[in-house]
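User: tokens in, sequence out, please.
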């Protein structure tokens, strides 16, 4: 499992009974987590009072309940980078802190390349990977179907003092965009994919991970440059083992090395919370 401990403003205080108690700078949140199938030794709210809690609905979805008035949003830091977070729909905050493990890997690969690197960030959400790659000196094309998420990504880039770096923001369905880039002859040295289990594009295009990801990876192979650096694939879908991502990358990008692994977050309890899986394809040696 790959974890990163460089967070300044994030930690998991405790877990149990389907929930995790987290501190995001000065704000404590209690959120559901499907991986937490064990019991808490004592009720989590006895350990630390939560400022807000996300309550799941029996009919699907859910809502936030607030113990005190929170700021509309606030800023958390990882290394020298900054991100704006807030309670959002479907229990999210606008940031997945476990991805710091992959940010560290990508920045290392880009810096060690010692050449200009162009990155295509697909299903790019609020731009964690975009910010990390820009900070390492890469140029980035950031693509997501949700305009409000792309606006949040712009804000995160600005917060980290990277607005002057070479970044392009695209609001579009990722498959449509990649097909256009193939026709245009545009190529990228690295591709980051963070696809949802299910989603819809800007014009209502349907995406289902298990059905569509292999064909999409083969499409992405056509926008890799002649001297590619890496392809990173993330999955939050419960039940998709790292080996599944490894197989997908090996079949889609046959000439290279593949490493797959779980990503996780350390807890104050001394455990590690699993948070999904990632697969990394590189042209050269394996990157541990």
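Assistant: Sequence out:
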């Amino acid at each position: 499992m790959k974890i990163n401990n460089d967070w300044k403003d994030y930690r998991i205080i405790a877990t149990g009974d389907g929930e995790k108690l987290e501190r995001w700078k000065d704000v404590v949140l209690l959120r559901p987590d499907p991986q937490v199938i064990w019991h808490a030794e004592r009720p989590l709210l006895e350990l630390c009072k939560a400022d807000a809690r996300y309550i799941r609905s029996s009919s699907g979805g859910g809502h936030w309940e607030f113990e005190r008035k929170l700021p509309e949003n606030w800023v958390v830091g990882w290394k020298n980078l900054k991100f704006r977070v807030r309670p959002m729909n479907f229990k999210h905050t606008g940031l997945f802190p476990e991805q710091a493990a992959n940010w560290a890997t990508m920045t290392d690969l880009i810096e060690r390349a010692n050449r200009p690197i162009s990155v295509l960030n697909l299903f790019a959400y609020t731009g964690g990977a975009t910010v990390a790659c820009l900070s390492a000196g890469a140029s980035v094309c950031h693509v997501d179907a949700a305009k409000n998420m792309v606006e949040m990504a712009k804000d995160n880039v600005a917060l980290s003092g990277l607005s002057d770096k070479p970044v392009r923001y695209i609001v579009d369905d990722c498959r449509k965009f990649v097909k256009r880039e193939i026709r245009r002859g545009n190529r990228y040295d690295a591709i980051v994919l963070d696809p949802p289990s299910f989603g819809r594009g800007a014009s209502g295009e349907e995406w289902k991970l298990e059905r569509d990801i292999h064909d999409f990876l083969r499409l992405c192979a056509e926008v890799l440059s002649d001297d590619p650096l890496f392809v990173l694939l993330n999955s939050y879908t419960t039940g998709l083992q790292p080996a599944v991502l490894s197989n997908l990358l090996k079949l889609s990008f046959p000439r290279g090395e593949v490493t797959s692994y779980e990503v996780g977050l350390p807890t104050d309890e001394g455990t590690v919370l699993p948070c999904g899986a990632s697969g990394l394809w590189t042209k050269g040696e394996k990157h541990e």
